[in-house]
Amino acid sequence: MRAARSRHNAGVRTRHLLQLVLLSALWGASFLFIRIASPVLGPNVMAALRIGLATLTLAAIMRATGEPWPWRHWRELTGLGVMTVALPFLLYAWAALRLPAGYSSLLNTMVVPFGVLASAWMKEDQLSPRKWLGCLCGFIGVAFIVRLGPVQPTPELMVAALACVAAAACYGICTPWMKRATQRISPLAIAAGIHATALVGLLPGAAWDLPHARFTAPALLAVLVMGVVTSGLAYWLNLRVLSQISPVAAMSSAFMIPLFGVAWGSLFLGEALGPGMLWGGALVLLATTLVTGFNPLRWLGFLRTR
């Protein structure tokens, strides 16, 4: 009986790990798509189109499954929609006008230090010297990326980097809040609700900038993939995983996002990889392992025995 339970738990952990790897690959690719679409459509239009497509995708799934809309939780979902969808999407879209996709994906890893601090404040986790050291490594790594990367550290680049850090802070701070929401609302309803409320907030800015947008085929294809896959379906999957594991464990996917983001940017956009970016990225990834306790060698050893 005990052996069967152990095998079941191991299988659940493996499934969660594979789901987190899939999310990392999808979200790493989203930085590539943002880089393609934002300069053409403009940040406001791109973010609104992305969120609108995600809302339609999730609404269709809710209709097919008979899931009711969580209208009585609209205040909470509005707050989560602003902090985890509207603001981050808009900030990353704006930063993409000045930053390579690899930069943005590495800076996104700062979600982990912010998330750990928020989890400790909300009594979802406890701080330790190791986690404080991880936060310090993360901020030093960001400084390396911005100052010593292959792109000249102009004032515009510095502001764009700060925008990415602010977006990561939004995600990190709200992760424990989102975890608590999954205990009261289904993951599908949360995903649909936060995208719908975020869309309402972004529509005025998108309408204002609409005359300046250029609707090219590559940009529209990038937005379509982001809206349906990396936003709609990926957010639903992320919330399903988050409802079953701790906030800090869920944030461990940020460990792998830069690996995909940098790879996609270098492969498809020809983005350069400077020594500062590599050292800074290593420090940011080290920070993530310190604050989450995620040990990839331990997981590889576990999977090898399966």
On the 0 to 100 scale, the average pLDDT is 80
**Strand element count:** 0
Report the helical percentage. Answer: over 70%
What is the overall shape? Answer: globular
Q: Number of helical segments? A: 13
Order of SSEs: HHHHHHHHHHHHH
Task: Tell me which oligomeric state these chains represent.
Answer: single chain
Beginning-to-end CA distance, first to last residue: 19 Å
Which radius of gyration do the C-alpha atoms yield? 19 Å
Strand-pairing-aware structural class: mainly alpha
Low-confidence stretches: 299-306
- Number of individual domains: 1
- Largest beta-sheet characterization: none
Strand fraction: under 5%
Q: Can you describe this structure in just a few lines?
A:
The chain is mostly helical and 306 residues long.
Written description of the protein model:
This protein has 306 residues and is mainly α. The chain has one domain. The chain has helices spanning 2-41, 43-65, 74-95, 101-107, 111-121, 129-148, 155-182, 187-209, 217-242, 247-250, 257-269, 275-292, 296-304. Helix 1 packs antiparallel against helix 9 (217-242) and helix 5 (111-121) packs across helix 7. The two termini are 19 Å apart.
Task: Present the secondary structure layout.
Blueprint: H1 2-41, H2 43-65, H3 74-95, H4 101-107, H5 111-121, H6 129-148, H7 155-182, H8 187-209, H9 217-242, H10 247-250, H11 257-269, H12 275-292, H13 296-304
